[in-house]
Amino acid sequence: MEMLMFNINRNISLPIYQQLYENIKQNIINDVMRRDEKLPSKRQLSNYLSVSQTTIEHAYQLLSDEGYIYSKNRSGYYINDIVNLPVTYKSKVPDENVQDEISYQYSFKLGAIDKVHFPNDLFRKYAKEAFDEQQIHLLDSGHKQGDINLRKEIGHYIFHSRGVNCSPQQIIVGSSTEQLLSIITDIISGSKYMIEDPLYKQVRNLLKRKHVPFEFIPVTENGIDIEQIKKIDYDVVYITPSHQFPTGVIMDLKRRTQLIKWASEKSNRYIIEDDYDSEFRYSGRPIPALQSLDNSDSVIYVSTFSKSITPSLRVAYAVLPKSLVSVYQKKTNIEGGTVPRHTQYILSKFMNEGHFERHLNRMRKIYRNKRDIILEELRQHPETFVISGEMTGMHFILTVINGLTLEECINKTKDFDIDIKPLSHYHFKKTDNTPNFVLGFGGINIEDAKDHINALITCLT
């Protein structure tokens, strides 16, 4: 591809990565750059434009987030078919590929875990057992809801840790929250959804891809806006009440009961509770899951092992209300059995023998220590930073209050080779230019925590 079409103007205030993003986007829309055409590598384009590779990466990331381009592992970026954006967006541009292609000196990446303390020995032991001749039955396809032993262990765990009351027959095991949400939309087909704003984009993308009507509801300091829910009055609400992603807001008990009361007023109303980050609470008594308060059979509970163990395990689960179990079982065109049975065996043994609970207790201490190191450094600069959403989970919101604009902060972090996402990245309807950032700390080695946060402090002060 000729690089003459990539033009930047250094005499205007618009950041270079945004200029490049707009330039490429318009060329795609105008069919100048066509489907499956390869873009220049980051190194080639950075040399040609005399800018950093990080600048090129930010432009490419924006284009991939919006579906204009997609990446191939170890190959580069290619032009997408914009006619099929709703279908190709999620599958063509997974976050994992971006992580493989770019590295930062300082990364506050969301979704990353502490790999140093992963229980490799135990997983190796159970993997050896899983592939033993005595487990030859695992070569069969298995139950579409997941193996019964794993569903029993999940039911036991969520009852004792989150108060979720269910039978194994209500549990569905899937490969991701998105896959489970796809199944749920098939079960309660014809419904209209209300989802939080801000929220991670995969939920919005899935609903768009499946042509499910939805409306955004703003998140306040106490959780999703109940009055807006009553006003719009669609059938289904999708929320992350335990540690709202990405704001970190914890929905209070009053708002939870109001939401359940709203759902109980009509038989076709449901609440999808994504119990995101519920495993890691660092002070105070955890608020029970919304499902544990539900007497109207209205809450669909969803969670995952991505944070508590590892994202690569690819195991999530949903608890259906009893009224929906028979509806699900009658559906013949719903995908099931997407988690390998050997993986299910390994996980069920890990849980059954008490190692999962011990692992969680250990990781809570480790993540709390990381968080405390980072917060201690930040709190020495009250004139520069405000912190919120730090009581639970593996990320919090950092607001810069020293007069720097959002654009200036983004440019500075790029110059310092810091990977951190602005909160605005996760907003859909609300336009917010406040310099708020979502700071993930799970993947930072504890011995590197001070260096990471001091680099960010130096960058923004």
Automatic annotation (TrEMBL):
GO terms for molecular function: transaminase activity. SUPFAM superfamilies: PLP-dependent transferases, Winged helix' DNA-binding domain. PANTHER family: HTH-TYPE TRANSCRIPTIONAL REGULATORY PROTEIN GABR. Pfam families: Aminotran_1_2, GntR. Gene3D superfamilies: Type I PLP-dependent aspartate aminotransferase-like (Major domain), Winged helix-like DNA-binding domain superfamily/Winged helix DNA-binding domain. In the C-terminal section; belongs to the class-I pyridoxal-phosphate-dependent aminotransferase family. Residues 14-82 form the HTH gntR-type domain. It comes from the Bacteria. Its cofactor is pyridoxal 5'-phosphate. Keywords: Aminotransferase, DNA-binding, Pyridoxal phosphate, Transcription, Transcription regulation, Transferase. This is PLP-dependent aminotransferase family protein. CDD domains: AAT_like, WHTH_GntR.
